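So, read this over?
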Amino acid sequence: MRILVIAPSWLGDLVMSQSLYKAIKQAQPDALIDLYALKWMFPIIKRMEEVNSVIENPFAHSSFDFLTRRTEGLKLRGKYDKAIILPNSWKSALVPFFAGIKERRGFIGESRYFLLNDYRNNKKDFPLMVERYSALAFSKDTVKTAQDLPDILYPSLKTQKPDANLLEKLGINLSRPLLALGCGANYGPSKLWPPEYFAAVANKWIEKGGAVLGIGSKNDIPTVNKIKEQLDIRYLPYFYDIAGKTNLVEALDITASAAAAVCNDSGLMHLVAAVGIPQVAIFGSTSTGYTPPLSDKAVCLESDEPCHPCFERTCKFKTYACLKKITPDLVLEKLTKLTGI
């Protein structure tokens, strides 16, 4: 059985999709799973043991380009028995359609009835995204609701010991317990716990004898800088700023050496979960009822504001109370319970 999976476009969604690949391989150990994915995702996909190979998805997030999608599909004719389309968009189902793949499975999304021939239109029966993904490993007659799913197999990315030369270049010493700060989130300000709160946690962690890792992409450099600006000057030697200074898997391997993490609801939160690091995950406008970290070592802190969850990118009240009422003291309390530090 050769299966083509059209991968999601977001990092966190990609990590969660590994639960689907695990479910497929558990039911069909000989199945070969290929992912059609954005090029920047390749290094993370290569850390998924269940995936056979990766094909580059050349389309930008907002690109439609009907004719090129047709050409892409024709290249794949005769190569696959089944396609599973994880994004909800109409355009994401075009390549498998033009490839003539006999079975094309996915949730409806954007009324793509004729593009899919094994479609599901009951998203409400699978509240969690990982449940929706995992359900696509099974026939719709076998798994009709989330209650019919077997135990969900959590993502588990392979990691490697961080390269000693890289650690030296970044000035990182792993002799102290390391706390990783996932202080970014591409979604918008409504997911961003205040930098001064991260700084308060970092100060206390270093005071107790630890070290702190400021992690993220180039987009997160200003946030990490704001955290550093509010650190006790005595603790700056124990704050390692690697935002924008590593590639994705280098950051993954360094983070896997951490004792714990504090993360916004973000792709990094899901990466931390997939390498088994204890973490406190902070949910502002979003909800653990949809995309929680998939780990038994994660503790989620979620707003109790009456407007929560709004799933908006910015706060319509301009207060961001859903984030600000989750205090550093509360996060530190949860960290202590998770790590004993």
